[in-house]
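Sample A.
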Amino acid sequence: MSATANIDSGLPFHASAEQNEFMSAIDRLRPLSMQHELDLPQLIVCGKQSSGKSSVLEAISHVPFPTGRETTTRFATELVLRNASCESISASIIPAAGTSIADLETLREFDPHVQRLSDFSRILEEASEHLEKLAGSGRLSSHRLRIELSGPQQPHLTLIDMPGLIANATPGIEHFDIQASRKVMNEYMRQPKSIILAVMPASEDLNDHEVFQLAADADPDRVRTLGILTKPDRIEDENLALRIRIIQNETLPLTLGWHVLRNLGPGAERRSADDRDHEEAAFFADPRSGWSTVPLTKKGVATLRARLRNILFRSIVETVPTLAREIELKTQDLEQHLAMLGPSRIDRNEQLTSLDNIAREMSTLIDQACKGTYDEQFFTSALTNGGNNA
């Protein structure tokens, strides 16, 4: 992660068209990454339920995320944001590695008919219902929902929203669910190219927050963890100085540093995304809030978008040589497996011809075995391999 070590400059990150295309090329590989286990750089948004994680995603994407315990998702959601002149939205489910053919067919049936960004919540609901067919009601799924959002206000960025950590068993939530939420988050955190966005309310104690304990286990050198504080307007005055020390990277030093965002307040559903950004900027600029002395590079969603783009792009650049070699080796392996299958047999006649050839070869082998001639390559290979050719 050496390429991401020094990202806290005061300048916003502006991507060129070439950089956008570069990041888009990596994103085209993401649907394949789970099945073929490609190690791609990714931003994973982690936190417990009610940590403000949904508000962070909503601030970045300008899409209203459902909030509340009853809307907690049971699967990871890959959010692909693209800057474009027109708004569009699409969704699909990326199968986990080792998914059976039958389950693959079930996943391919997921085809929500969406046209507007306002359909976002409906996509999550339909995906939950669809994945419950495989995982069971209320169970965490190893498959990933992928939502692609394009629009004039979108940054060129991809994030993965992790299911929130469950702190305690409640009606409808069992001990198994608590352990499963930790297991899924831990698996993503331990991937070497995962950049951990650890979300925590400013009103809570850093030492008691499980997401940072998990992050420390997965990233002991703290080189790929970015801390995000939410709800800065809900802390007591006597705790403000302690929280500012956290943001200044003094309490728990992280290579990628810290950032603070203000969540929407009461009546937020009646406000636009622009109103949200303006209210946040006014809050942080107001000396009475106590946060006006914090550098702009460490507060507010505008600079957070720039930081995340910078981190992700630098990580991608660092990864490309190794990734190219990895893809080349996997391609060679797949080509060898395809060659072993022989030519394609698309229509019925080709399939019947192939079966006829197999039957003829089998007949020849049986005939030679009965006569003891053993002229075919099959017998030579069997003798060479000690009889393990069968």
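Sample B.
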Amino acid sequence: MEKSFIQSEEQKLEKRRKIQLNRDKSNASSSSLTSADQLNQSLSEESSSTSTVCESAINDSCIQIALQTEFHPTSLENNPKTETNSTNEFNSKEMSRIQELFVASMFLEEPLDPKTSNPSNLISLINLTDLAVKRIIKMTRGIVAFNSLCQEDRIALLKGGCSELMMLRSIKNFDADKNSWRLPTGCDGSKELTCDMKVLKEASLLGLKLYKEYQKFVLSFNPKWRWNETIILLLSAIIIFSPQRANIVHKNVIKLEQETYYYLLKRYLENFYKGRRCEARSAFLSLIERLQDLHRLSETHLQVYLEVDQNYMEPLLIEIFDLNPKIKNNSKIFTDLTSSSNSN
């Protein structure tokens, strides 16, 4: 990558100020424990002597999320009309939620234009994510719960979650044998381009180990789940409805939606393993741990945008990652993309 793409120290300092402010807000939110979290800790201590959920070591925050799903069920479980049947099959309301994600995700599967979507270096790969962001925005429009949120929260969730969503979606198209991504092209997506993952090595010029970190993450993700569209979509919904994002107004509403998708993920795994409860729980905890790995990887990913000269970047990327302190949160280019659920 040419050095002209790299920011001057003065430019990077300006961009760091706003990004660091948002990161501080996010860290402050995630570090605090709610009363429900405290109850979960107590329940964890009482039950630790009677059951072992997973053989591998899982950190405390993973356990808290698992117990929160177990002991603080969402409205889906509390509604007597939607009780789970004895065969572990999804009821109509659960299935409706999952089908909604499949329909909404159709935008993410649209084939690329081979003339404009053939990244050969890091900067072209970065600008290809402009299209990914636009598709993620379209996807969220197809989720009823997301559209019911106020515009401030929708924008905050998209800004905070886009990087993680892009990284998660990318592992589905990763070819470990060729160390590259498969990019569907053509009118029907029957043709493919390949993008060598080695382009991420150019981030080393910026002092970042993005290549090694991404490779470690994608290889740690069990292929059984990496290629499972239902799993990827449920994890995507969990990422979208993250109450820890900066500038959230209605945190509890978003938290409820996220817990709903945690619940659906747990239900899906119980159904997948057909009553083998210990295996289902182990897989659930492992996937939660992958989400936490993804969050750390996303931090490195965002640093790439910070280091690259924004003159070489698409305007939407500058705005969604808050790279220009002069652009307000609700500026026109991003608001136009999110304000109407019926626009294209």
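B remarks: Confidence is low (pLDDT under 50) at residues 28-36, 42-57, 80-86. The longest strand covers residues 180-185.
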